[in-house]
DNA sequence: CTTTCTGCAAACGATTTGCAGCAGC
DNA sequence: GCTGCTGCAAATCGTTTGCAGAAAG
């Protein structure tokens, strides 16, 4: 975990007029330690007595502040990870068997090609791109 | 719409022991005409008196038969489109403002690079890739 | 005829929300 | 202290399911 992670989180929340409370810090720590997107159940299990509704509410606040990103997989559960500029650029392996989500990275040469092609496509469509998702869907090592 | 689209749909459903009924045909026609992923509300509006539960059930059947694909956007509504081998390989523009989903394509040179890189990444992770998603997230021309 | 599909209405479950009390500054 | 956060429990709403009758073959 980056040493200034909490400082950054604090600042981004401050911009939105939000506090960096104990619960919010706990969520950031858990996500930072996980190294993969976590579902609500994961967070509740890892956290110490966090209330479900508070976690949902805090995830929304953290997402709006740009500290956390929501990841939609193949099952019915939403998952969350730290914002990409707080970790490193990566993609997801989405298992259709168990719903698990794992991270992976691509060579920077490939990223550059994709980046350029997407920028062109977005411009052509009059679309203001903020982010992109490049995920693999299939069966993980356990389910395959 | 491909002339043999209904024949293909019929055959794929038959493999699963399913019938290609009037309702299912109607869904396929609507999706084929749309040229973009449609939400349930879109389908109910376009269809002529289709029951909500039947549409949901038929979409599941059609998805299992490989005729239809579910597309997850940025809003709370699931969307559906024809399977990729019945149309052409494409990607999605996901608008975070209004939730709209539009199609776009990339140059085949880019697709090849991505395809190869993903195959390598999947092999390395012991992941059996079935499909990939490469979508742009941002604001569409109307919301931007 | 038999099996599958359909439509209605009721059930389900992840997520959201109202409210009273507590914590942060 | 005042404002915003928390936890509990109830509400919301897209989606799923049970069942009796209709359609496909």
| Total tally of structural domains of chain A | 2
- Main β-sheet of chain A: number of strands, strand sense, barrel status? 3 strands, antiparallel
Say which CATH homologous superfamily of the largest domain in chain A is assigned.
Winged helix-like DNA-binding domain superfamily/Winged helix DNA-binding domain
> Number of DSSP helices of chain A?
5
Kindly estimate the percentage of residues of chain A that lie in beta strands according to DSSP: 15-25%
Give the overall shape of chain A: globular
Write down the overall mean pLDDT of chain A. 95
Helix content of chain A: 40-55%
Protein structure class of chain A: alpha+beta
Question: How far apart lie the N and C ends of chain A?
Answer: 32 Å
Number of strands of chain A: 6
Radius of gyration of chain A: 16 Å
**Would you give the CATH topology of the largest domain in chain A?**
Arc Repressor Mutant, subunit A
**Could you list the spans of chain A in which at least 5 consecutive residues all have pLDDT below 50?**
none
């Amino acid at each position: 975990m980056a040493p200034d992670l909490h400082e950054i989180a604090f600042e981004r929340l401050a911009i939105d007029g939000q506090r960096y409370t104990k619960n919010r810090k706990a969520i950031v720590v858990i996500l930072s330690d996980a190294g993969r997107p976590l579902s609500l159940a994961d967070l509740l299990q890892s956290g110490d007595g966090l209330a479900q509704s508070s976690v949902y509410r805090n995830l929304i606040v953290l997402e709006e502040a740009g500290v956390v990103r929501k990841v939609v997989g193949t099952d019915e559960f939403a998952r969350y990870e730290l914002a990409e500029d707080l970790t490193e650029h990566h993609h997801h392996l989405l298992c259709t068997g168990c719903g698990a989500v794992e991270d992976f990275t691509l060579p920077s040469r490939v990223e550059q090609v994709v980046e350029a092609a997407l920028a062109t496509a977005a411009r052509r469509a009059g679309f203001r791109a903020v982010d992109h998702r490049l995920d693999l869907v299939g069966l993980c090592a356990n389910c395959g």
